[in-house]
Specification:
The structure is a single chain. The protein is of the alpha/beta class. It has one domain: Ribonuclease H-like superfamily/Ribonuclease H (Nucleotidyltransferase, domain 5), CATH 3.30.420.10. 31% of the residues lie in helices and 26% in strands. The chain has helices at residues 41-58, 60-63, 75-81, 92-101, and strands at 2-9, 20-26, 31-37, 68-72, 107-111. The protein has a 5-stranded mixed beta sheet.
Length: 125
């Protein structure tokens, strides 16, 4: 089952209450999630991925015996979670949580170009 995530900031000003959003979609199930988030661009991306992984964990019966393929357009986040690149000190906790889900959920994580990321559809910043 293909799943997509994306996190975007409106601005890098972290003093704003919510300066970005998190988003994920599971097209095969017709599921779309959007929420506000406060953090850097990469933190928003990680928060999106973690929200998706938590959704999958909490709804395991929907994903039973399914191959879970997750796609995101942030090369850095995908590479860090796949242990191809070391996360910065600030991102280590996010990365560790995403990697921890691999012990509970058998998923693959792949990079895709921004224009192919279905999690961004219909969202304007």
């Amino acid at each position: 089952m293909k799943c997509y995530f994306q996190g975007v900031t409106r601005e890098e000003n972290n003093e704003v209450k919510f300066n970005g959003y998190v988003s994920f979609t599971i097209p095969e199930m017709g599921i779309k999630f959007r929420g506000q988030f406060k953090g850097s661009s990469d933190e928003c991306e990680y928060a999106s991925l973690l929200a998706l992984l938590e959704f999958i964990e909490l709804n395991a019966h929907l994903f039973k015996d399914r191959r879970i393929e997750i796609f995101g357009n942030n090369f850095k986040v995908v590479s860090q979670v796949n242990s191809e690149m070391s996360p910065t000190h600030e991102l280590e906790p996010f990365c560790a949580m995403a990697q921890g889900y691999k012990k509970k959920i058998p998923y693959t994580l792949n990079w895709i170009p921004t224009d192919e990321n279905m999690a961004q559809d219909g969202v304007d910043i």
